[in-house]
From TrEMBL:
The protein, known as: Gamma-glutamylaminecyclotransferase
Active site residues per record: 82 (proton acceptor)
Record's GO cellular component terms: cytosol
Function: Catalyzes the formation of 5-oxo-L-proline from L-gamma-glutamyl-L-epsilon-lysine.
Catalytic activity reported: epsilon-(gamma-L-glutamyl)-L-lysine = 5-oxo-L-proline + L-lysine
EC number: 4.3.2.8
Annotated keywords: Lyase, Transferase
GO biological processes: modified amino acid catabolic process
Source species of the chain: Aegotheles bennettii
Domain spans labelled Gamma-glutamylcyclotransferase AIG2-like: 4-122
């Protein structure tokens, strides 16, 4: 099992969460909420209003998201879903645990006394330069105040 941190449309209550709970794609177990230890720009970009975490450490915000434990089948599905390695690249990043789902497994799940775990994160280094000038967010919600409605894949 691998840990994956999701910050966009794959979170609970977001448009693509259905893929995380579809066991035909593999297994994904929600472990808790977290945020990136380093700051990153989280932007909403492109004609489909997709959230992207730009891989520019030290710029932007501590990005909030969810931590999942996934099997190899789900990891492979997510790679394909995220257009890895062309659109997004999957890299290990340090995530600060904000809240664990299962209190009893906190010791195992945290992985360290500081409550920091390493998770795979889909971020990008392949983006148009003007994206750096877009507004940065610390928490993505497809129906947020930004007014940039995410366009579902089936509607494109």
């Amino acid at each position: 099992m691998a840990r994956v941190f999701v910050y966009g449309t794959l979170k609970r209550g977001q448009p693509n969460y259905k893929y995380m709970i579809n066991t035909a794609n593999g297994l994904a177990k929600f472990q808790g909420r977290g945020r990136t230890v380093e700051k990153y720009p989280l932007v909403i970009a492109g004609k489909y209003n997709i959230p992207y975490m730009l891989n520019i450490p030290g710029t932007g915000h501590h990005v909030a998201g969810e931590i999942y434990s996934v099997d190899d089948q789900m990891l492979q599905f997510l790679d394909e879903f995220e257009g890895c390695p062309d659109m997004y690249q999957r890299t290990l990043k340090r995530i600060e645990v904000v809240e664990w789902e299962e209190k009893g497994s906190a010791g195992e799940a945290r992985g360290s006394a500081e409550g920091i775990v390493e998770c795979f994160v889909y971020s990008t280094t392949t983006y148009p330069p003007e994206w750096v000038g877009l507004p940065y967010y610390d928490n993505y919600d497809s129906s947020g105040k930004h007014g940039l409605s995410y366009v579902l894949r089936e509607s494109r």
